[in-house]
Structure formats: structure tokens, C-alpha cells
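Why does residue order matter? Because the sequence determines the fold. Keep that principle in mind as you read this record.
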Amino acid sequence: MGNTPTPHNQAKIGEIAKTVLMPGDSLRAKFIAETYLEGAVCFNTVRNMFGYTGTYKGKTVSVMGAGMGMPSMGIYSYELFNNYDVDNIIRIGSAGSIQEDVKLMDVIIGMGACTDSNYARQYNLPGTFAPIASYILLEKAVAAARKQGTSIKVGNVVSSDLFYDADSTVNERWRSMGIMAVEMESAALYMNAAKARKNALCLLTISDDLLNHKALSAEDRQFGFKKMMEIALEIA
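Structure:
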């Protein structure tokens, strides 16, 4: 393990659980801690990226914001895996649908995460790396969703470096390859997990319908993703 605390996380060893739920929005982390966790204690406030540890149905669980984009997810997940010896990170985020059958508020699982990022360049691999979820977490999430009665879709997503892309044709080209939705963090999380020999999973709720130009409100994004949150908590 590396040095702790880090420049981005003031937690001490032992204050973070083996499984961490990671929304992009740190206020969503705060909401989860206050709504679902018993005895939640805040372990990080650096840069207002709140992190908490408590218990859910007797299990010790942590929740921490990851920020927006792969550089931010890359920093926080790297430190959790390598400095704090976290075993499992479950991203619980939002995404924009690019398929007609993927609707607002649908819960999807990113089995794989394509990307337009150069994040994998650091590994100096002799080809193109395919970032994928940990099957052990994927299988548990599908079972938990079925038990919950929530219909989910499992497939490929794309992690983009760009929220505002000057090329208006990119989503249609990803769509032609069966990509379900666009988001901005999962590929970096999956690569960090692979390199650290740890487990990662991306659970997403559709907040934007990019085909039909519909979107949820900021409040819905912060508080309205309870089905996804509860699936993640059940498998933590």
C-alpha cells in the first residue's frame, strides 16, 4: 500500500471499508450515507469530495464521491485500491441513453466500457485494452435486481472524455455498434481495477435521453436513483 493520507483523501487506514460505492456527485454520497447507513462517519472532506463509512444490514460499507470524468475517477479509485486496500468499487452514476429501448430512469449495467480516452496509454500495452466489469459483482447485481423486481439492461457503454463534443456524429456511430449509453468514468475505473487485481462494477441510471432530447432535473439526479443505490448496497 502507498502512503496515507493522500493529497485527496484524509482517511486513515482502517477507516474505509473493503467495498466502496462511488457516485460521481459527492452530495449523492452524503445522501446515501444519511439515508441508508447506520452509524455513518465522515472520513473525507478534502475538496468537498465527501466519504463516509457505516453499516448496511450489518455489513460495513463506504460511500465516496468520484467527481466528473476519468481523470477524477482515476485518482480516487487508484488511491482506494492501492493506498487503502479496497477490494471492490461499485460506481453508481448517471448516463445518457443512445438506444431507443433505453429510457429515462432505466437501470443499466456496464458489462464493458468503450472509451475515446488515452487512459490506457500509461500501461504501454501492445494493443487495445478492453475494460470490463468484474463478473463476480456483475452476477450479484443481476441477482439483486431480480430479487428487487427491477428490470435492468446489461451491455456495453462508452466512457467519453467529452461532455460537449464538437463532432455531432459520435453518438450515432457508437449507437451503430450497440452501445447502450454514454458516461464519463467507467473505463478508468475498470482499468484501475484490472491493474490492481481488484473488482469493479458500473451501475447506471439513465438521466438523459440523447435521442429524444429529454433529461432529468438536478434534484432527480441527486435523490432519485434509489433502485440503483439499493442494488449496490445489497451486493456490497
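Helices lie at 26-36, 70-82, 135-148, 170-175, 186-196, 218-223, 226-235.
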